[in-house]
Design a protein that fits this description.
Length: about 110
C-alpha cells in the first residue's frame, strides 16, 4: 500500500473488524460450528448464496480456521477456531447448546433433501 493511503486503509480495516457480526455471518458461523469442518461449496449450498465474503470476514476476525481439504488439496475446509471456542466459553464443540438435538434435526433435513 502506498504510504499516503496506508493510514486510511488501516482505519477502514479496524472499523470493519470492530463492527458486530451481521445475520449472514452468524448464520455461516453457526453452520461451521454445528457441521464443520466443511468446504465452501457445501456452506454455499446450505445457505443458498455465495459465502466467500462472509468466510473471508470470519477468517480475518479469527473466528474460523481454514485448512487444506484432505479429499481435495485444491480447496479448503473451514472449522471453528480455538479463539472462537474460548470466546464462547467452551472447550469442545459438543458443549454447544442443544448440540445433539441440532445434529439430529440437520441429519433429518439432509435425508429429506
Amino acid at each position: 500500500t502506498h504510504p499516503d493511503v496506508s493510514d486510511v486503509i488501516t482505519q477502514l480495516t479496524k472499523e470493519e473488524l470492530q463492527k458486530d457480526l451481521g445475520k449472514s455471518a452468524l448464520e455461516t458461523l453457526t453452520i461451521i460450528l454445528y457441521q464443520g469442518p466443511m468446504n465452501r461449496s457445501k456452506i454455499d449450498h446450505i445457505r443458498g448464496v455465495n459465502s466467500q465474503f462472509i468466510l473471508r470476514n470470519l477468517l480475518m476476525r479469527g473466528l474460523i480456521s481454514r485448512i487444506p481439504d484432505p479429499q481435495d488439496e485444491r480447496s479448503f475446509v473451514y472449522m471453528p477456531s480455538l479463539d472462537l471456542l474460548t470466546h464462547l466459553g467452551i472447550s469442545r464443540i459438543e458443549d454447544l447448546p442443544e448440540y445433539d438435538q441440532v445434529l439430529t434435526t440437520l441429519k433429518t433435513f439432509a435425508e429429506a433433501e
